[in-house]
Specification:
Layout (H helix, E strand, L loop, with lengths): L4 H6 L10 H20 L3 H32 L9 H6 L3 H13 L1 H4 L12 H5 L6 H32 L3 H28 L12 H26 L9 H32 L2 H10 L4 H20 L8 H23 L12 H22 L12 H5 L4
Helix pairs in contact: 2-3, 2-15, 3-5, 3-9, 3-10, 3-14, 3-15, 5-8, 8-9, 9-10, 10-11, 10-14, 11-13, 13-14
Length: about 400
């Protein structure tokens, strides 16, 4: 049922998700982890590679939410207040992700060459990196990262929801300070996590652009998901009076911008390494340009950049719901494809196989993400109704 603006502003209610949402997400999770369990007995390297891909892809989604919220608080942005519950809910996956991270450590011997006993001692390069490349240090770093992410994102969301009851404007200022702390600690912990989970798959290789490359990937898929979720929720009428074409258009612009930004960072990383032509650096791309992987590498600029770029380039496309939903689904799939291209050549010596196992396992992780996201979304008011900047958001126009 649709409400007029006055009624919506005084009583926005909670999000009501369709009855099929939780069963569908549950089936997706069960099917994905069922495939993972089956594939362990068939091809353990593909199974654990798929596990890492699914875990990391959904971790990026979960972290994009609180990063967007913190950026908006720091910028003093008013326009985004009415859509803030969506990125806040994305961080709900961080708690199950912390538990699922244990699976990465369980499969460490299948994923990380340096985790095998005796490997580091017999390799001078790895011996030099031994203080960093060890499971104990990685476990401590990952634990610290999750504590920081969960604690600060929970505080940001808790203050936002407490304001729904008290209307205390000081909570907005408090969240601005928390956002500054989050940004500093996030930059450090996310960089280390990106090194640990993905870059250390190639322990002899390194890139000084890796952290920003992973950040750009996070924001591309995160903004595409936020734009998709807002578009779908807006169709239900539950955001009437709060979200209009201008809000959706701005989210579409973010999705468009980060598609271009990620392509720029990915190309810069490739160009600097390839042009320098240093064997210890080019080995990463040589492995991913051989045995058939070159076709995936050549396809990525088209599917990851050109498709979303040209689809979102027209002005009208950025606030057309069905376009943003399509781009959101597409970006989720091609981000998984890119992670498959990054992860699997480190685990196999042959060319690519049809990645249905890896995508199915990603589906399992995405199912858990949707369960956590939906649960968080439906527990509180659909809009921060007593935020002092809400009036600015409501009157936001193109």
């Amino acid at each position: 049922m649709k409400h007029d603006t006055h009624e919506a502003l005084t009583n926005p209610g909670r999000f009501k998700l369709p009855g099929w949402y939780y069963p569908a997400a549950g089936v997706l999770a069960l099917a994905g982890f069922g495939v993972f369990g089956w594939s362990l007995s068939v091809d353990s390297h593909r199974a654990w590679g798929g596990y890492l891909i699914g875990f990391y892809a959904t971790l990026l989604l979960a972290l994009a939410g609180p990063f967007f919220v913190a950026a908006q608080y720091l910028a003093g942005a008013g326009w985004s207040v009415s859509v803030r519950r969506i990125p806040e809910a994305m961080s709900a996956f961080l708690l199950p992700a912390a538990a699922l991270a244990a699976g990465v450590f369980a499969g460490a011997h299948h994923l990380y060459h340096w985790a095998h006993p005796g490997v580091i001692e017999d390799d001078l390069v790895l011996l030099h990196k031994a203080p960093y490349l060890n499971i104990t240090r990685m476990g401590v770093s990952v634990a610290i990262g999750f504590v920081v992410w969960i604690a600060l994102s929970t505080l940001l969301s808790a203050n936002s929801r407490a304001q729904d009851l008290s209307g205390d404007a000081r909570l907005t200022h408090r969240n601005a300070y928390l956002s500054a702390l989050f940004m500093v600690l996030f930059a450090l912990t996310f960089s280390v996590a990106s090194f640990d989970f993905v870059m250390s798959l190639e322990p002899h290789w390194f890139s000084t652009m890796w952290a920003v490359y992973m950040f750009s990937m996070m924001m591309q898929v995160g903004m595409a998901f936020i734009a998709m979720a807002v578009s779908l929720l807006r169709k239900t009428g539950q955001l009437d009076g709060f979200v209009n074409d201008a809000h959706v258009h701005d989210l579409g612009k973010f999705a468009f911008a980060f598609a271009a930004f990620h392509a720029y960072i990915a190309f810069c990383q490739f160009l600097l390494i390839w042009y320098a032509n240093l064997p210890e650096e080019t080995i990463f791309f040589i492995k991913r340009f051989d045995h058939g992987w070159q076709w995936v590498a050549l396809a990525l600029p088209f599917v990851k950049f050109m498709v979303p770029f040209f689809v979102l380039l027209p002005w009208r496309a950025k606030h057309t719901g069905r376009v943003l939903v399509g781009v959101g689904v597409w970006t989720l799939l091609v981000t998984t494809l890119e992670l498959w291209w990054l992860v699997m050549p480190a685990l196999t010596t042959h060319g690519p196989e049809l990645p249905w196992i890896e995508f199915a396992i990603f589906g399992g992780f995405f199912g858990i993400f949707l369960l956590a996201f939906g649960f968080a979304l439906s527990r509180h008011a659909a809009v921060p109704v007593k935020d002092p900047r809400l009036a600015e958001a409501v009157h936001h126009h193109l």
